[in-house]
Amino acid sequence: MGNRTLTQEYALYAYECIEEVRELNLQSDYKTRVRRLPAMIIHNGLLTTLTFLYSKAKFKNEKNENAPNAEALLLKHIVAWLEYREPKEITQQDISFFIKKLAETDFQHLMLYSRRALTLAQWLKRLVEGEFEDAKDE
Questions:
Q1: Domain 6-131 adopts which CATH fold?
Q2: Distance CA 58, CA 51 (A)
Q3: I need a labelling partner for 138 at 20 to 30 A (CA). Which of 31, 37, 102, 110 fits?
Q4: What is the pLDDT of residues 95-110, one digit of tens each?
């Protein structure tokens, strides 16, 4: 982490996520999901939100060469931050294990993860609003 503040760490990580979205050409779909993410976490809770995204995610594997989709990429970004606080290659199995870990954790830790996920979601939302044009604007 070095000599950066936590706010700087969130910002830097969010920018790295946005660059990956751009490389995979998923701007429009990712922006749609990220715009709703903070409200989903607040209204439904982190565990329910991650489970919903997981149900919609298409992960890259031998059957699905076109993946990941926006939901899988967003899950990867959230889990990598919450579990490792750095960009990291995250698999479908890692995400599944993390969701199970959240289901088994105590209330205090779930709230801590939720606050961190909400902060990341707000950073991602701010950045996609500025970095990605709406489909109707293109």
A1: Peroxidase; domain 1 (1.10.520)
A2: 13
A3: 37
A4: 999 999 999 999 999 9
Measured between alpha carbons, how far is 67 from 124 in angstroms, rounded to an integer?
Answer: 21
For helices 6-23 and 70-84, the axis angle rounded to 10 degrees is 150
Question: How many CA within 13 A on the CB side of residue 111?
Answer: 3
**The overall pTM is greater than 0.85:** yes
Rounded Cα–Cα distance for residues 85 and 8 (Å): 12
Instruction: Name the H helices within 58-104.
Output: 70-84, 92-104
* Sequence-separated (6 or more) residues with CB below 8 Å from residue 16: 87
